[in-house]
Amino acid sequence: MEVMRLKVIRSVIRGELGKSPPTVSDVAERLGISRRTLQRRLADEDCSYSQLLGSIRSERARRLLSKTNRPLYEIATSLGYSDAGSLSRAFQRWTGTTPSKFRRRNQ
């Protein structure tokens, strides 16, 4: 898969994040391909859908925490998490620190 195609997949995922956590089927449908084809294309890049989704969520969370004062629950919702606790646990996995500590260091 060429880099441009991966950018398109990432763009679709970003666009779907605020509604709910986009599933691989949602993204495949928006791209006009089957779920299995999307999974194969990602596998060709040594990437899984969950890795890609996590990467996008991590990038957006870091940006929102460092550049805005939005409450954590709003950031969590905008990333497709059901609550702030779910985001906090994921953020600690990604960064090794809590969202509040990250925000204090990066604002």
Which descriptors apply to this entry?
107 residues; mainly alpha; Arc Repressor Mutant, subunit A; 7 helices; 73% helix; 0% strand; elongated
Which regions are unreliable across 5 or more consecutive residues at pLDDT < 50? none
What is the CATH third-level topology name? Arc Repressor Mutant, subunit A
Number of domains: 1
Shape estimate: elongated
- C-alpha-based Rg, rounded: 15 Å
CATH architecture: Orthogonal Bundle
The share of residues in helices is over 70%
Query: What's the pLDDT, averaged over the residues?
Result: 92
Report the end-to-end length measured between terminal Cα atoms. Answer: 37 Å
User: At the first level of CATH, what is the class?
Assistant: Mainly Alpha
Question: CATH superfamily name?
Answer: Homeodomain-like
Would you report the number of β strands? 0
Number of helices: 7
List the helices and strands and how they pair.
Layout: H1 3-16, H2 24-31, H3 35-44, H4 49-67, H5 72-78, H6 84-95, H7 99-106
Helix pairs in contact: 2-3, 4-7, 5-6
Describe it.
The protein has 107 residues and is an all-alpha fold. The protein has a single domain, classed as Homeodomain-like (Arc Repressor Mutant, subunit A, Orthogonal Bundle), CATH 1.10.10.60. Helix content is 73%, strand content 0%. Helix 2 packs across helix 3 (35-44) and helix 5 (72-78) crosses helix 6. The protein is elongated and about 40 Å long. The chain starts with a helix and ends with a helix. The mean pLDDT is 92.
